[in-house]
Amino acid sequence: MKKLDQLPPQKRLEPLPPDERAYILERIKDGDAEYSNQWREKVRRFASLYARNLSRECKRRFGSEAQCHLEWMAEILLTPPTFLSDCPIDAHCLGAVFYCLDALAESRGGQLRKEAEQQYVSLSHHLGTAGTPDAPHSKGSKFIFSEETWRAEAKTAKGIVIICPSPFSLYSLTVAKLLLHLEVPIAHVIVRSFSLKRFSDEWRRDGYRLIRKIWRKLLLKSNENPEQTSISLKDICSSFYPEFNDINSLAESKKIPVSTVDELDEAYDSIVSSNCAVAVFTGGGMVSSKLIQTLPLGIINVHMGILPDYKGMDVVQAPILEGRFNHIGVTAHLMEPALDTGPILSHFPTTSLQYTSLGALRNELMAVMPFVAVDAALGHESGRLEAEKQDAGGRQYYVTHKRLGSLVGQVMKHDARNIGSSVETDAYNALRPIAEFASQTSG
Fold first, then answer.
1. What's the domain count of the chain?
2. Which residues contact 435 (CB under 8 A, 6 or more apart)?
3. Which residue from 376, 362, 415, 417 is spatially nearest to 231, judged by alpha carbons?
4. Range of the domain at 20
5. Global pTM?
6. Strand 160-164, strand 186-192: pairing
């Protein structure tokens, strides 16, 4: 047998013989903290990454031993964590367990299913009684709405490139409209086409969530979620240049060059020729170092989550599942080839306790994001905002399993302590000047 205590988990999870799987599991259950946490995190990331495709990936990777490996992974993930002090259950490991159980044949893992349900009940109880934690120690400046500051900085701005995932993206369109309203020159718009390959890649990751996104965002041209909120991205977008419903027609009207590309690297020459210092990324996939280096000040992304703690996907749900209801918000940062790791410029913090549904919370965060993006671009170019290197650590999150997604909804309905008929949310208060701001639009 290999001396696995002298080796970290495999960089790529490969088939392991039964005796080695048993040894690893025994050491984890014996409470070897560092070894246990390394393996739990490795297995969590693997199961959560492949998610609904986990069964197929395990069959491809482990062959006839796929079911045994799935049970082994579930056992590792169900072992009580050694690094959580305020929550008895690691919700994200439990979500990975549910993905493993989904991939197992119904005849397998009976005891594991019982243990998973027991942990689910314990987690539900904990989240229903959790106190209100302190706010996170965020990096970067706190976002403040200031049209006066932006207009002053707009006078010296060289121009901004917008990189967007679709011509119909409300977020991209709102960023463009805000820049035009502030008289900030938009030097170029890069639009990534929605090719068959891109659809296939996103379908593999998101499944039916992709259809929902296409339906609401591209076809209905509406907010991400149907819930009504005090302020929404669609309302803001409609307040400025309401005659334009897509970024291509807006760009054509304002004589802004547009490049449509299959892959973002194809925009290299267009960005170089724009002679800009900074770009705003509003979606479209990972960005290469080659593309980032074309701009002296880099590419700015606004991440719907508080960095450096919450990287990746579904990072609005993630802190709620950890009982960290105040660790919600958005973060403006400079992009790097790695996911959500770049230096931080600013952040907008809020709490889930002002909302009774995830959809309403996400809608209002989306309404804030264009302003945070424009503020970050202007502040970075002017020197008002200083980029702060992210601390090491944090965690990468993936698509939340449907069982835990339902739990988020239950927790928010049950735990909306501050909800009242006249509650004004952080997002609404931060953008309160929008009414006056929009009324001044000349079109």
1. 2
2. none
3. 362
4. 4-129
5. 0.90
6. parallel
